[in-house]
Design brief:
Layout (H helix, E strand, L loop, with lengths): L2 H10 L33 H22 L3 H30 L12 H15 L5 H17 L26 H34 L3
Helix pairs in contact: 2-3, 3-4, 3-6, 4-5
Length: about 210
């Protein structure tokens, strides 16, 4: 490296960082339209929330796999994002399955994905008896495993619980590549169930409108 290059490199550290000003806004549009995210363009936004959390987790794991670092810091947002995906995907299936079956019950307010999955799986079996029973049981087992370490979606959000105890005691390693692959398997069943219910809802709408 020449003296000129060294001076130029060191000069980068002399540039003051940008700090918040009274002109800054967090949520706005800008001329670089390709970076403007679109919101509220669908009548039902559940699918976007569900897909967004899983996509974000997948992208972070891919980054870890590609570069071989950040494992120990990204593990927390990655697992939280996957868990949020599961909770939203299951709640959406409950919502749609109840709509299909004309079930009028209060929406589950719990964050426990094991309880949500029990409700969801029972609804799916009523819609399509005997379909994917083994796979649904395995999803239930995997969700139970998730709940053993993170029952209420707090363990990967905070390092301590409300009593000040460690959030993840006894866990030394989590293979992020494996988490991503297992979540992809779960997503196949959840996506398939969602597509099936959506198809049945379309048929139901056509019947009620007299166009079927």
């Amino acid at each position: 490296m020449s003296a000129k290059d060294a001076k130029s490199e060191w000069g980068m550290f002399l540039i003051p960082p940008a700090l918040p000003t009274d002109r800054d806004k967090l949520f706005s549009t800008a001329e670089d339209y390709w970076n403007n995210a679109c919101l509220n363009f669908l009548p039902d936004g559940w699918a976007l929330y569900v897909t967004g959390y899983k996509d974000a987790a997948d992208i972070l794991v891919s980054e870890v796999e590609a570069h071989g670092h950040y494992h120990d810091t990204l593990v927390y947002p990655i697992i939280f994002l996957y868990r949020q995906y599961l909770e939203l995907a299951i709640k959406d299936l409950i919502r749609q399955a109840r709509k299909l079956q004309d079930v009028h019950e209060p929406f589950p307010k719990t964050h426990r994905i094991d309880e949500l999955w029990n409700i969801c799986s029972a609804l799916l079996q009523k819609i399509s008896p005997g379909d994917s029973e083994t796979e649904q049981k395995n999803i239930g087992r995997l969700i139970d495993e998730f709940c053993d370490i993170d029952p209420t979606s707090m363990a990967f959000r905070y390092p301590e619980d409300r009593e000040g105890s460690p959030s993840l005691p006894g866990i030394a390693h989590i293979n992020l590549r494996n988490v991503k692959e297992v979540m992809a398997k779960i997503a196949i069943i959840l996506d398939g169930a969602d597509a099936q219910i959506d198809h049945y809802l379309s048929i139901k709408a056509d019947i009620y409108s007299g166009s079927y």
